[in-house]
Amino acid sequence: MSDERGGPDGWLLAGGPVTGEEVGTWFRREGSRVVSVLARAFGDLDLAEDAVQEAFAVALDRWPRDGMPPSPAGWLVTTARRKGLDRLRREAARRAKQQQVALLDPRTEPATPEDEVEEALTAIPDERLSLLFACCHPALAVESRVALTLRVLGGLTTSEIAAVFLVPETTMGQRISRAKAKIRDAGIPFRVPDESELPERLGGVLAVVYLVFTAGYAAPSGPDLTRPDLATEALRLGRILGSLLPDEPEALGLQALMLLTESRRPARTSADGDVVLLAEQDRGLWNAGMVAEGQALVRRCLAIGRPGPYQLQAAIAAVHSDTRTAADTDWAQVVALYDHLLAVSPSPVVALHRAVAVGELDGAQVALALVDAISGGDRLGRHHLLHAVRADLLGRLGREEEAVGAMDTAISLCGNAAERRLLVRAREGLVAALVHPPGER
Fold it and tell me: Using one digit for the tens of pLDDT, what is the confidence trace for 285-335?
């Protein structure tokens, strides 16, 4: 597919006229690939990112005036490399980096044409994956991994990331700087782990990508239900993982889970921004392309035959996507998949979602007993979802007074304004049922 602006999927054609905004869009999509190359070359993520930013500033000045170069990524690598070397030369005397400069100085080795650099970028697709593993190294705190991934591979600004974590921009800037320094000072390698290390390390990388996605799919705070920018970046990272690790079923499973979940976005809110629950969504609004792609990935996972948590969650989402209406959902299959998921990855959250499915299959009384027996409820009790589920089940059993109390707790714990409005409306319905029992209506 192409458009009048350029090549496949709207990529800008080299040599054509471009605007500063289009250069920025190109850089947001491709900049992480260039940073990955420079980070490995310099062994310093901070230096690589600064050099690429300086090169981008040059591109922003020249490309709208002179047009895109024949090999834009190659041009950016070459320019950024020179910027980085200039900085190293300035610091060489003070920091004794003459040897590194000599090894990297293009004057000491044959010049590489920019189109060959571009070809090399295409031929070595694991550079971004190497950077992702470095950003998600277990030596870093989990919040630092997420923040650094969003900054370096997601292209978000420090202020945007600070908003996600609800911290001041200066605090987030310091956190990111410390994480970069730790990668540099600890000599954390920019490489994909060896095959023997991969299963242990991959789980941490997938967890970071999923955390980014969930923060975008259900924003922890703010006026809107979702943060589409975060969900989009997580999907992009998931596609990178899936394409570069095609035989890793959990990487494929995460990609499938995100696609099937994200496919519902158009139906998840009303025109005025209110939440629409899964059972009430117009499934005709779901993104059919994402559904088909996600289901195909689930089938690939089944063929590999090594089920894991992300694959099982994707399979559950696939069951929901198989029906035209919520009433047609195969709840027995959903419960069976949750049973498998609970065995593979036991957690209070999984147990809670399984209880909701059991409620659809066996009734609210059975489900409420499961919810009240969930192990680890103290931690889950700080999340509004547990109390909202209890309120719903209590209301279905005619125990409206208890349900109102549970819903009050849920409302007090909910940080997202759109979800809170949903809970308030549900509370109003419970109060109405309490004031006017079914026999009086």
Answer: 999 999 999 999 999 999 999 999 999 999 999 999 999 898 999 999 999
Nearest Cα to Cα of residue 146 among 204, 199, 226, 223: 204
The pair phi, psi for residue 268, each rounded to 5°, is -85, -15
Matching residue, tokens 């198989």: 322
3-state secondary structure at position 420: helix
Cα–Cα nearest to 372, from 382, 384, 380: 380
Following DSSP, what letter does each residue of 3-63 receive, concatenated? ETTEEETTPBPTTS---HHHHHHHHHHHHHHHHHHHHHHHS-HHHHHHHHHHHHHHHHHHH
End-to-end Cα separation, the chain, in angstroms: 58
Q: Are 416 and 218 in contact (CB under 8 A)?
A: yes
Percent of the chain at pLDDT exceeding 70: 83
Q: Residues 150-181, buried b or exposed e (16+ Cβ, 10 A)?
A: bbbbbbbebebbbbbbebeeeebbebbeebbe
**What SS3 class is residue 299?**
helix
Q: Of the ranges 56-60, 113-117, 166-170, 316-320, which one carries the lowest mean pLDDT score?
A: 113-117
Q: One-letter amino acid identity for 419? A: E
Residues in the chain: 441
Tokens standing for 101? 């400069």
**Which pair of tokens denotes residue 137?**
């190294």
Q: Quick one: which H or E segment has residue 2?
A: strand 2-3
Instruction: Express each pLDDT in 88-110 by its tens digit.
Output: 887 765 555 555 555 555 444 44
Residue 347 in tokens:
């957690």
